[in-house]
Amino acid sequence: MDIQKKITRKVLTAMSLLIVVASLFVACNDDDQGGTPALERVSLVAKDSTTQSGRRGTTYVIYGNNLATTREVYFNESLAPLNVTLVRNDNIIIRIPDNAPFANVPNKIRVVTEFGQAELDFVIQQPGPSIASFDPAFIGAGGIVTIKGEFFENLQSVRFDDAEAEVVSASGKEIEVKVPDGVTSAYLYVTTSAGTVKSSSAFGFKFVIYDEDLVATWQKWGGWSSTTDWTSTQQAKRGDKSMKITYDGAWGGSQSHPSNTFVLVNNYTAVKLSIFGGAGTTGKSVMLFIKDNDGVVGTQKSLAIQEGVWTDFTIPLSELGSPSTINEFVFQDQGGAPYVIFIDDIGLL
Questions:
Q1: Domain spanning 207-348 has what CATH number?
Q2: The IPT/TIG domain covers which part of the protein (predicted)?
């Protein structure tokens, strides 16, 4: 009996030791993988240089402790896609979401693990502004121009070339400004804390060819294989009227003509206009060309039509053969007739 008791006590003692060792092993393992997470710093993947701000769509390394069980990572509460193969106990490699907010936000990274969460101050850099459009194409001093685009937050200024405009209202996607005195033709510049963007086309005209009707100093010559309604109210880019051209036969044309010698050289650099495509015009094109006073036909510039929408064009005179004068101003079908187009806001820059 005594021998049995001694054996039993030894077995129990051994089992107790095993339980203690196992507990210590589990505890140590928990220490390696668990515990409340902590965040220390952020750096670019390509360069281990600590940064307090980052750009959308760029990959960074978040350094800290107890990160192995990370479940979610947020940039200003925007959830970032997490690749668990890029998660270690002391760092996470992750890409800032393309839509991560940057304005009126807490400026925080938040990491959630199985054992808690941690935050770190981090600023999402505002993308540079972009201009999609502005309207109207021209209006007098004091008139309101609406600029549409993206990333207009933290607006600093709007300029018409060098003339600063008064901002009437502004949001992240739209700005309303008053046209400064003395501006007849200018590019628009929007400046935010993230940079400056220039409009792709110019505002205004140095000389207006068509606005509600053909300018009085030009003549309406009509054309061939086409008819032109010079004051159609069916469509208008701005105001109430536009120039409606109905092409009845292939290669038809619509002409206008200055009453007197019209000198381009050293005075103008481009032609600007807007075209609206009637039914069935998708995939069709018209050509703009200028014949000078010597009868020389310049380069024919093809303009693609889009059905049901206004398309803006700014055409450098160099792309029209750099004519020195205008005798005829022609819009010609490129072989796709019959169809109808509307043209508005024609002018020279």
A1: 2.60.120.260
A2: 129-201
